[in-house]
């Protein structure tokens, strides 16, 4: 592997000792702590999530960060409101099953059984078939039951968070229960044939959910009212059905790797004197629907945010090899061009997102600010089309390349230098019409 050599490009706030300022040993310590079993998968609203937030807060304190304006601690707390499952019954051939059931829509009570006169059944085996099935929910003329193959279990958390248990900033925004037809998704752990009988019942009620982001800042010396944001999400999926005795979704790559980068960058830039104010934030509830970044973004004046470096899943080598990462929405601003120019004498390369069909630009925590014009991009290395550990209990530190993570963090630190010191300003992104 080529040695990563980063230049003292004009405007980059870099000293000859930068390598020692982002030591691999520290990267390993932080990511191992966040992805440890005792964090219980860091699912939002659980003791594991609270433990992770306390750890990140302590790291920000050690780095000497300030709380955000209006806050007295690094914990940015808020409430959201939405539907929560209170009881589920799934019976097949007279036997109760513990199969996950996900209701689609605003129904408070779902009760369906095999009845071909009023219910359509779909069996889906892959992500494309699942998306096609979900596309039918806006034009239903009868109830629909979607039987999901076991291989799709990794999609359950996202389906629950973004579709079934979607939450809202105000209780009054929770949709009323007016649906005539209902759709449910069932993880089909055993084949259900046309000869089998089944029934499913689920009740849901409105609940209040408390969430906590972790955020701190360095006030800019020359342009304190202009902000550069470094972010990642610290939540993950929590406890999943056991595989070989392991039920903890450690989320080492997704996104302990990005959160580790945020902490390391906070330590790196605290030793500098940035011209612009820097915010370092670990978001909660990304896996549930991006509620942490949504709330945070709503507290920011987008006109004052110069750039956002969202960092997600940098734990493995990208499809472009070592010393590389990709930037989502590369073509939407000159953010990536600026970063690459600041690395022009190095071996590191930033590439455009190689998976445009995955729509990753609007699937991560950068999206809320990007939609209102901020040059907010996600930096990643994930080979999302091939990663067998994504959203499984096998996403552990042992599957990651900690040296590669360290090199990426160094590249982000150096490549963002001219933006941090005020000599470069990325072009704005065209806002999304509401």
TrEMBL record:
Pfam families: Peptidase_M28. It comes from the Bacteria. GO terms for molecular function: metalloexopeptidase activity. InterPro entries: M28_fam, Peptidase_M28. Residues 213-413 form the Peptidase M28 domain. Signal peptide: none annotated. One of its GO terms (biological process) is proteolysis. This is Peptidase family M28.
């Amino acid at each position: 592997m080529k040695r990563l050599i980063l230049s003292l490009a004009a405007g980059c706030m870099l000293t000859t000792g930068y390598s020692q300022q982002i030591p691999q040993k520290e990267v390993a310590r932080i990511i191992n702590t966040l992805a440890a079993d005792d964090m219980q998968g860091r699912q939002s609203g659980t003791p594991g999530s609270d433990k992770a937030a306390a750890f990140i807060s302590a790291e920000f304190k050690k780095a000497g960060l300030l709380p955000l304006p209006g806050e007295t601690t690094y914990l940015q707390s808020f409430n959201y409101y939405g539907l929560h499952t209170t009881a589920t019954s799934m019976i097949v051939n007279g036997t109760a099953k513990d199969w996950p059931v996900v209701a689609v829509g605003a129904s408070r009570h779902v009760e369906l059984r095999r009845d071909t006169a009023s219910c359509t059944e779909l069996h889906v085996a892959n992500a494309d078939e699942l998306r096609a099935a979900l596309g039918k929910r806006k034009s239903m003329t009868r109830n629909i039951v979607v039987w999901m193959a076991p291989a799709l279990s990794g999609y359950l958390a996202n389906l629950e968070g973004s579709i079934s248990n979607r939450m809202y900033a105000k209780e009054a925004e929770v949709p009323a229960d007016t649906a005539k037809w209902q759709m449910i998704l069932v993880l089909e752990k055993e084949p259900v044939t046309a000869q089998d009988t089944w029934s499913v019942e689920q009740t849901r009620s409105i609940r209040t959910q408390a969430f906590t982001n972790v955020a701190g800042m360095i006030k800019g010396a020359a342009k304190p009212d202009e902000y550069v944001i470094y972010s990642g999400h610290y939540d993950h999926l929590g406890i999943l059905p056991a595989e070989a005795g392991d039920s903890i979704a450690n989320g080492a790559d997704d996104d302990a790797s990005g959160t580790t980068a945020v902490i390391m960058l906070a330590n790196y830039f605290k030793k500098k004197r940035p011209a612009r104010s820097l915010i370092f934030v670990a978001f909660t509830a990304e896996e549930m629907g991006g509620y942490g970044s949504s709330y945070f973004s709503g507290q920011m004046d987008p006109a004052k945010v110069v750039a956002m470096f969202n960092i997600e899943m940098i734990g493995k080598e990208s499809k472009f090899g070592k010393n590389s990462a990709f930037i989502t929405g590369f073509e939407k601003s000159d953010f990536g061009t600026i970063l690459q120019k600041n690395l022009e004498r190095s071996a590191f390369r930033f590439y455009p997102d190689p998976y445009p069909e995955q729509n990753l630009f609007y699937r991560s925590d950068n999206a809320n600010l990007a939609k209102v014009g901020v040059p907010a991009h996600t930096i990643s290395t994930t080979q999302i089309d091939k990663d067998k550990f994504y959203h499984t209990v096998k996403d552990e530190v042992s599957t990651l390349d900690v040296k590669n993570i360290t090199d990426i963090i160094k590249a982000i630190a150096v490549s963002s230098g001219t933006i941090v010191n005020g000599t470069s300003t990325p072009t704005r992104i065209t806002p999304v019409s509401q």
